[in-house]
């Protein structure tokens, strides 16, 4: 049977493209989401990829969901921690809740999901984990103290966990997208977006396709020697 992949936030935006490319690469795929029931239904109708609703910032929900998926579909061998949110504000207006929500959803979720699959992957001596970071975790970004901290944390988390997983053939890598043309980026005011694009040497926003190509590579069986790395896919905007 082909390997089973779970993609968090896998039914829209970058995650949807990751789910679809993994399926095209022969994986069985399950896409998680948090609240967009209509988008999830439409996604499954269009792609045939099943979805499962749970909050990745809730540890118990993650453990329960992984147990349910593994009971119904078999072991999760590929995990893509893609779910993420922004709650942007300058420090003066950044509330404790905005901080907590972003840290818990973007970074806490990596702990929650990795913890839930770790024992199984270790026992079976195979795993592919990809965590979606961000250029703003590498370079920082005005008005994104919470998001930059969470994404930067993902990069450290990835390197540390990769060292633990190596002995059991579990690779743990990060993909750090630059600015990608999704709803998250379309919410940026047009004048700000124009300035952002002007700073991208490649002269355009990234696409979900660009990012998913990197994830597919890192989750391939023969990417065994790539671990603890961060693949920056950003059109040359930040060479880290
Ligand atoms: P979108 O806002 O388009 O999609 C976010 C996805 O995450 C949705 O599927 C959403 O589910 C899911 N999600 C959000 N919160 C939770 C939660 N608590 N539990 C489960 N699922 C949740 O984001 P993008 O596609 O733009 O971004 C995907 C990833 O890439 C994120 O980690 C983001 O930080 C990162 N990134 C994006 C960049 C960009 O330019 N777009 C640049 C750099 C990094 P639902 O639909 O139910 O809300």
TrEMBL record:
<dbReference type="InterPro" id="IPR020904">
    <property type="entry name" value="Sc_DH/Rdtase_CS"/>
</dbReference>
<feature type="domain" description="Ketoreductase">
    <location>
        <begin position="3"/>
        <end position="183"/>
    </location>
</feature>
<dbReference type="Pfam" id="PF13561">
    <property type="entry name" value="adh_short_C2"/>
</dbReference>
<dbReference type="InterPro" id="IPR036291">
    <property type="entry name" value="NAD(P)-bd_dom_sf"/>
</dbReference>
<dbReference type="GO" id="GO:0005737">
    <property type="term" value="C:cytoplasm"/>
</dbReference>
<dbReference type="InterPro" id="IPR002347">
    <property type="entry name" value="SDR_fam"/>
</dbReference>
<keyword id="KW-0560">Oxidoreductase</keyword>
<comment type="similarity">
    <text>Belongs to the short-chain dehydrogenases/reductases (SDR) family.</text>
</comment>
<dbReference type="GO" id="GO:0032787">
    <property type="term" value="P:monocarboxylic acid metabolic process"/>
</dbReference>
<protein>
    <submittedName>
        <fullName>Acetoacetyl-CoA reductase</fullName>
        <ecNumber>1.1.1.36</ecNumber>
    </submittedName>
</protein>
<dbReference type="InterPro" id="IPR011283">
    <property type="entry name" value="Acetoacetyl-CoA_reductase"/>
</dbReference>
<dbReference type="InterPro" id="IPR057326">
    <property type="entry name" value="KR_dom"/>
</dbReference>
<dbReference type="GO" id="GO:0018454">
    <property type="term" value="F:acetoacetyl-CoA reductase activity"/>
</dbReference>
<dbReference type="GO" id="GO:0042619">
    <property type="term" value="P:poly-hydroxybutyrate biosynthetic process"/>
</dbReference>
<dbReference type="InterPro" id="IPR050259">
    <property type="entry name" value="SDR"/>
</dbReference>
């Amino acid at each position: 049977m082909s390997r089973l992949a779970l993609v968090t936030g896998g039914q829209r935006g970058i995650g949807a493209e990751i789910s679809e490319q993994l399926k095209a690469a022969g994986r069985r795929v399950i896409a998680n989401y948090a609240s967009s029931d209509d988008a999830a239904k439409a996604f499954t109708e269009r792609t045939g990829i099943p979805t499962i609703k749970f909050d990745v910032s809730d540890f118990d929900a993650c453990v329960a969901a992984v147990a349910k998926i593994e009971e119904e579909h078999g072991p999760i061998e590929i995990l893509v921690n893609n779910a993420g949110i922004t709650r942007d504000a300058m420090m003066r207006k950044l509330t404790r809740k905005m901080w907590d929500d972003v840290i818990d959803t973007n970074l806490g979720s990596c702990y929650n999901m990795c913890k839930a699959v770790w024992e199984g992957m270790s026992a079976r001596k195979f795993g592919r984990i990809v965590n979606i970071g961000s250029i703003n975790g590498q370079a920082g970004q005005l008005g994104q103290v919470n998001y930059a901290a969470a994404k930067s944390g993902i990069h450290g988390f990835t390197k540390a966990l990769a060292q633990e997983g190596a002995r059991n053939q579990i690779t743990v890598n990060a993909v750090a997208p630059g600015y990608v043309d999704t709803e998250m980026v379309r919410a940026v005011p047009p004048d700000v977006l124009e300035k952002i694009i002007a700073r991208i040497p490649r002269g355009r926003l990234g696409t979900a396709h660009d990012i998913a190509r990197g994830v597919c590579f890192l989750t391939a069986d023969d990417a065994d020697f790539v671990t603890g790395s961060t693949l920056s896919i950003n059109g040359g905007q930040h060479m880290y």
